[in-house]
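Let's sit down with a protein and look at its sequence and fold side by side. Which protein we use is up to you, so please pick one and set it down. Label the sequence line and the structure token line clearly, so we can match residues to local backbone shapes. Go ahead whenever you are ready, and we will take it from there:

***
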Amino acid sequence: MKKICVADIKDRDQVEAVFLVKDKIMAMAKNGKPYLTLKLMDKSGEVDAKVWDNADEVGALFEKNDFLAVRAKASVYLGKMQLILSELKRVPEETVQLADFLPETERDINAMVAELHALIASIRDGNLRQLLEGFFRDPEIMALYRVAPAAKGMHHVYLGGLLEHSLSVAKLVEAIVPLYEGLNRDLLVVGALLHDIGKVREMTFMRSFDYSDEGKLLGHITIGVEMIHEQIIRIPGFPTELGMLVKHMVLSHHGQYEYGSPKRPKTIEATILNYLDDLDSKINGIRTHIKKEPDNATRWTSYHRLYDRYFFKENGLPEESAEPHDLIEMIDPIPEPVTTAAAAPTSQSPSEQKGRERKSFSNNPFAALKGENLDLF
């Protein structure tokens, strides 16, 4: 049987492969019989799996973060792929390549590192530039910053995710600054690059993505402020108030107390950072949710528990046109209208054209959901 990765699994496939156990839960069926629910992963994605028979005995053979060689039957259930496991065997870590099991950014990490250093070089404030250089010229910090994920489950959950997310927020900063007078661009760029710096110590990502003891006890915001303070005191004459403004951006970037912010944003720059961080994380989180369901043929995603909603996947653009626009183009003035030649006449009659329009447009956007649960909100 040909080995297969998660992204290539199709409905009714017979699967034989090695996966990393991301989650393992023992549950009880309505008839009182125990069963196992697993989340298996490789670098291409993750898939739910079930063990219905002899769950107690099978569950004793492995733990979360172990590698399993499995035989299974694939099936689509409620729009999501799942595996029904018939055989499994724990595989020693030394027999696998860890790089095959953790997802990574689609961007080139070395290119992103070059982009990071170009941003640092663009900082005009000498104190802020020294602060960034203190972090990103440290080989130990940089080795972690370039490969760390940005989160465990919400957004940018892949190797290189922290660097990608931080650069994305910095790009949003560059787009916003020209629109408003009097913003401290350097301070905002520093906030973009350092707001999640504590995640290099909050998270573990050498096997699967999880939280360190320090991360669970302190959290990345507290860790990040400590790291920034350690760097600031090494810079002679660093202005006390400037250091306070940098720390405030980190302390408040989650926006609200209930979202884990010790402080709410109380400067213009901190407020902007909060919204841009939230914007980039949500866009990535929603796109990732949609990508995880290639076998869902409906126009709606499955329910997203953390966002507490379903998402409509259409946006009015044909697929080939749904490409990201350059941020600079987005803020350029609208060009003058261009006169074009008249379209070539069609050989179809008006009634034929009308018929084609009817076929390509439906005033019932839920037609594809016939038979599904329409209680979407």
About this structure: The two ends are 43 Å apart (CA to CA). The domain at 6-100 is CATH 2.40.50.140 (OB fold (Dihydrolipoamide Acetyltransferase, E2P)). The beta strands are 14-28, 34-42, 45-51, 67-77, 80-91, 203-204, 210-211.
